[in-house]
Specification:
alpha+beta, three-stranded antiparallel β-sheet, 123 residues, 4 helices
Length: 123
């Protein structure tokens, strides 16, 4: 899918809620602001949330969400339900439009949608 010459549109990858990115191993860094939002959403205290759902990042530069033993996101429930979808971290909402990794297209079921710059949103 490509834009016509002179068209200022871009491709936006629209999430299909396949859950595959939630099963991909790796860190999901969270800022203090994100922790505040998630903790409030879960009706938890900030420090209670940190103790139960985070760990120190490998580079020791902040916190990351913990994973289930099988590598899935701790907030992935059932087949593809995100328990914190309304307040998910920027890393989650930004994938694959703001960031991605080599080979992401092989695991992600997002579909390309041609949109104008002013219409782009994150999933």
């Amino acid at each position: 899918m490509s834009a016509e010459p002179g068209d200022h549109s871009k491709i936006h990858w629209q999430c299909q809620r396949c859950g595959n990115c939630c099963r991909w191993p790796g860190e999901v860094p969270v800022s203090d602001e994100e922790i505040d939002k998630i903790a409030e959403f879960l009706e938890m205290d900030f420090y209670e949330f940190v103790a139960e759902y985070t760990d120190i990042r490998r580079n020791r530069a902040g916190l990351t969400l913990i994973e289930k033993p099988n590598g899935e996101c701790i907030f992935l429930e059932g087949k593809n339900h995100c328990r914190i979808n309304e307040v998910k971290p920027a890393q989650c909402s930004g994938f694959p439009n703001r960031w991605n990794f080599k080979g992401w297209e092989k695991i992600c079921e997002a579909v390309p949608v041609l949109v104008g710059n002013e219409q782009q949103t994150d999933s």
